[in-house]
Amino acid sequence: MSLFPKPLSIIRTSRAYNGNTGRFDRTESTITLAGANGGSVQPLTGEEILSLEPGRRDRGQVWIFTRSTLVTPLEAADTAPDRLLWNGKLWE
User: Fold this and answer.
1) I need a surface site. Which of 6, 19, 66, 72 has the fewest CB within 10 A?
2) Which residues of the chain are under the pLDDT cut of 50?
3) CA–CA gap between residue 32 and residue 49 (Å, rounded)
């Protein structure tokens, strides 16, 4: 584990209403957290995995330690959670 924050790439999804089509358009933007707002990514192990829902335990999980505010998954929420692009894979 590094004591110094490293740059993180976060993919944030947002929805905006399109008055021409009457639908919500989904857009994704990449946010780079760097410097003091960067973070550390650590594997999730042990009892932390048992606290997850059973369907999410086998997908591989990581902890993200950062000073920045991230959008987390919420049940029945209208917003999509942020995803981390790390080691060539997307992590929720």
Assistant:
1) 19
2) 1
3) 27
